[in-house]
Amino acid sequence: MVTVYLLGEQRVSNPDDGAGTVSSRAIALLAYLVLHAGLAQSRTRLAGLFWPESSEQQARTNLRRELHNLRGLLGSDGAPTADGPTLTWTDSPSCRVDVDTFRNERAAALAALADSGTQAFLEHADRAIDTYRGDLMPGVYEDWVLDHRDVLRRECVELCEAMVRVLRESGEVETATACARRRIQLDPLAEAGYRTLMELQAASGDRAAAMTTYHRCAAVLETELGVAPGAATTRLFDNLLGEQPAAAPRRERVRTAMPALIGRERECGELQRRWRQALDGRQGLVLVSGDAGVGKTRLTTELAEVARADGAVVATARCFGLPGRVALAPVAEWLRSPELRSAIGSLDPLWRVEVERLVPSAESAPRPATSRAMVDAWQRHRFFEGTARAVLSPGRPVLLVLDDLQWCDAETTAWLAFLLTLDTRLRVLVAATARTDEAQSRRDVRDALRALRSARLVTDVEVDPLTADGTVELARSLGGRVLDPAEEAVLYAATAGYPLYVVEAARMVPGADATGGAGDLGEVLARRLGQCSDPARDVAGLAAALGADFDLDLLSEASDLDTDSLVQAVDELWRRRIVRPAGTGYDFVHDLVREAAYRSVGPPRRWLLHRRLAQGLELLHTGRTDDVAAQLAEQYRRGGRPDRALHYLQRAAEVAAGVFANADALRLFRDCLDLLEAMPVGRNRDAHEVDVRQGMSAPLTTLYGYSDPQLERTLDRTMELGQRLRRPKVVLGALIGLFAVHFVQGHTAHAHGLGVRALELSAADPEFEGQAHFAVAGGALGLGRPREAIEHFDIAQRSFSDDYSFILGTRLEVHCHAWESHAYWMIGDEQAAEQASADALGLGRACGHPYSLAVALGYASVLHQVRGDDTALLASLTELRQLCERYHFAYYSQWSQILEGRLVGGEPGIAKIHDGLAALRRQRAFARMPYWLSLLAEVQIDAGSVDAARATLDAALIAAEQHDDRWWLPQVLRLRADVGPFAGGVSARTVRERPIPTV
Q1: Distance of CA 68 to the CA centre of its chain
Q2: I need a labelling partner for 794 at 20 to 30 A (CA). Which of 42, 52, 367, 705 fits?
Q3: How far is CA 624 from CA 617, 650, 669, in A?
Q4: What distance in Å separates the CA atoms of residue 687 and residue 730, rounded to the nearest whole number?
């Protein structure tokens, strides 16, 4: 069945044809007919309405074209009915339109309500409200759309109100509360919705939530309309809250929550110009940079309002500077925004699974207890693509606002780069703020911006302090009176034109002296906090200790105050403009205010606050502490509980690895080691350290490759600890990991010895037997003993089935067959070699694991090269290169590069091989170096550079001796003999085609 979505998006879905590729004009035409269902529409009128600037004949032609496209997409049953000069939409069972579904379910609900059928009413109303996923055709502002949009929204609001009323009468307060929240989302400027929600929250005993609702109502009204809540809303809140403390008298009027935007015409013009370019499909990042307190966030807030007016999806997030940050937290915050969350439901299940890695739903599978970082590393690309598609899923322009980019984690910056380069024309703009100096000091942020700038995707907007005139004008707008020249001079000298300083100075003495009489910003903020009551100051210190936005549930768990006192304290902080509503809770109005509040708390009390916050987080997230593992670790660390901090740091690292944030995972594991350094030496510390070291191995391998010295040291230490603790499984895993390290580094004999040791230990633990035989086989082949290698490869294949090596990161059967093909070729059994390679490729394609397929293609390419099958070599190299580029596979991409150089030949081929060899050397990957060098020598011989080839082959011989890499040694010796001291010599192809005896 074809489904047409017009509420909250504009899309046609055909399960037989995938997502419908239909123009926006065709969807608008379809919407017009649907909204006037049953009424015949004149073709002439439709043509004139949708193509007013075209001639009548051209407009009719355009109409016929779009109707043809619609019939092709909807089928004959779902297409508009043509009757001579008119078109009519009639409902069809083969075509579902969400507007029709909403209207039908609403009508059924109201009919049931009229007949006192409460249960039937609730069922139909729930389906209708669920179908109404957003405004009709967002982003379209034709008069006919606006009229129907207002009607549909009002109908849904009225249905929500009726449903809340029925649920309240039935005593279902919790469900009624959820429905009241939905009503506010539909009409956020209507105070009646907030009053209903406050009453429901108070009825359930949650006065804190009622206060938050009032604060959110006031913030929305002040921001959008510049007014305070009405008398009825304020009176209801007063009744719920009770008497205000004397230290925080209620203001007679509400000043605008957001100061007037003064002196920013140039910056606003640049931001709006860049937004218009994004609307035309020129995606990018606009970076608003400047000092702290200069007004960067105010500018992006203004841009967000412009984007909303243009019908765009606007999602906001911010980064925090304190430790305990979570990888990809801004991306998760964007995906949780209401408009994106509703659109994600329409994503293909393939991509929705990737979104749920980061933002789990109630149906999501639990996170694995152990890391699959090596096996699943290739999925990072798919994960990024899935989450990027989720952001683009509404089918409307998107503005992503990111505050404090200077504190952004490396994975989020990488994700942003991926998003902005996903396609050539995207209607997406990222508006980020950053403190100039700190952004330059963060290497990952600096590198990401440099890469985006090189792609011409960054627009810089530098924000300077206000001029003297601008400072005075801002102060006048806040203080409500005209300053004399002396006050103006003092104000500008004290604030240097920084808007935050001006605002805070004015707020310190409301309605009086806009200069605040302060010496510096820190003093102003300290004095502002000092004006608060003792409970409010205590709550501000507690919230500041968290280092991020906070909610009242957490404050209630961690504070000494009873609920009523806590509610009054938070209300006071809100009234004094120290905190503001944010997300589902609150945040400080600026990070500098947070810092001032934290400085006001003495060190002993900080220790207590951090411990209480940690315990509160544990209680509130029972059964799902992974969601806040990084925060828990930081709070326990600052609260003097390193043992608890260590536990949560480890879990936070594993969670980070689960979303492919390997750099973040590695940072967290290193933090674990720092904590362990301070613990007493002994078996307990060793046990913790071995767990951490084991966890570190996969991220290290993924980031830096098998040959990385850090990985080698980590595995050496893991083996040492495993032996000390008498844990044979730990030792076995470390030995197999070390085999891979030393083999790739070119220590062939040592790698073989490690495999033999692993095989001896595996007799007591069959779980590792297959991997141990694999290690022995690989080492034996490198040493030039192919028959021994085949024996162990065969045993390895019989020892495991349908399994992956969490150490090597590959499907073991694929790796075995692929490598064994070389052993068969060495003993002259070309048929068995071809079969083994074909088996590896078949398994690699069937298992859906790109890294294993890359391994199979890499070994197959080498086999094609040594057999002289250039046609097969070209095909396998093309596929291998595409895989490596798509998933950023190192090592095997260098195999591809060198083999391509051999295929190309001549000077271009020599240059390509040199580049590949240089990359391998940088990775310290010297395995198979004699083979790679022999390929270079062959190209040099064909190019007539015999002296260069002779030197290359001498280097190959030295490499073979240094690294015990003997599998290709006979060929190197033969080539070297043919290019001895004599000029000329036979061609490289002739030499290569000679049979090579077994060593």
Answers
A1: 40
A2: 705
A3: 10, 15, 20
A4: 11
DSSP 804: B
CB 328 within 8 A of CB 359: no
User: Residues 6 or more apart from 123 whose CB is under 8 A from it?
Assistant: none
In whole angstroms, what is the distance from residue 267 CA to residue 435 CA? 16
Q: What is the C-alpha to C-alpha distance for residues 721 and 719, in angstroms, rounded to an integer? A: 5
Looking at residue 997, what is its pLDDT? Answer: 37
CA 704 to chain centroid, in Å, comes to 22
Q: Is 226 left (phi over 0), alpha (psi -120 to 50) or beta?
A: left
Structure tokens at 915: 């580049």
Q: What angle do CA 991, 992, 998 make, to 5 degrees?
A: 105
Taking the C-alpha atoms of residue 791 and residue 814, their distance in angstroms, rounded to an integer, is 16
Q: What are the DSSP calls for 338-350, one per residue? A: HHHHHHHTTS-HH
Tokens 């294993």 — which residue?
852
Single-letter residue type at 718 = T
Positive or negative, the Cα torsion across 948, 950, 954, 957? positive
Q: What span, in angstroms and rounded, lies between the C-alpha atoms of 930 and 933?
A: 5
- Taking residue 174's Cβ as centre, other Cβ atoms within 10 Å add up to 11
User: Which residues are within 8 A (CB) of 603 and not within 5 positions of it... i.e. 6 or more apart?
Assistant: none
What integer best gives the mean pLDDT of the chain?
Answer: 87
Alpha-carbon distance of 825 to 831, in angstroms, equals 8
Candidates 557, 532, 530, 579; CA nearest to 245 is 532
Count the alpha carbons within 13 Å of 569 in the hemisphere toward its beta carbon.
23
257: enclosing H helix or E strand: none
Angle at 348 between CA 342 and CA 354, to 5 degrees: 85
Strand-pair category, 585-588 with 579-582: antiparallel
The pLDDT value recorded for residue 756 is 96
User: Is residue 459 a contact partner of residue 490, using CB atoms and an 8 Å limit?
Assistant: no
Interval 674-727: pLDDT, tens: 999 999 999 999 999 999 999 999 899 888 988 999 999 999 999 999 999 999
The two beta strands, 398-403 and 585-588, are unpaired
Rounded CA-CA distance 285/401 in Å is: 10
Measured from the Cβ of residue 582, the count of other Cβ atoms closer than 10 Å reads 18
pLDDT category of residue 22 using cuts at 50, 70 and 90:
low
Cα–Cα dist 580/886, whole Å: 44
Between the alpha carbon of residue 895 and those of residues 374, 376, 739, 920, 953, the distances in Å are 20, 22, 20, 9, 19
Q: Give the Cα separation of 115 and 39 in Å (integer).
A: 30
| Alpha-carbon gap, residue 181 to 213, rounded angstroms | 10
**What's the per-residue H, E or C state across 904-955?**
HCHHHHHHHHHHHHHHHHHCCCCCCHHHHHHHHHHHHHHCCCHHHHHHHHHH
**3-state SS string for 725-783:** HCCHHHHHHHHHHHHHHHHHHCCHHHHHHHHHHHHHHHCCCHHHHHHHHHHHHHHHHHC
- Confidence band of 15 (pLDDT split at 50, 70, 90): low
Strand 81-83 vs strand 41-42: parallel, antiparallel, or unpaired? unpaired
d(CA 299, CA 304): 9
- For residue 973, what is the enclosing H or E element? helix 969-978
What whole-number distance in Å separates Cα of residue 770 and Cα of residue 816?
Answer: 10
Distance CA 558, CA 591 (A): 21
Q: Which of 84-93, 414-423, 886-895 has the lowest mean pLDDT?
A: 84-93
| Cβ within 8 Å of residue 59, ≥6 positions away | 47, 48, 50, 51, 52
330 HSE (CA, 13 A, CB side): 26
- Give percent above pLDDT 70 in the chain: 91
**Is a pLDDT exceeding 50 seen at residue 253?**
no
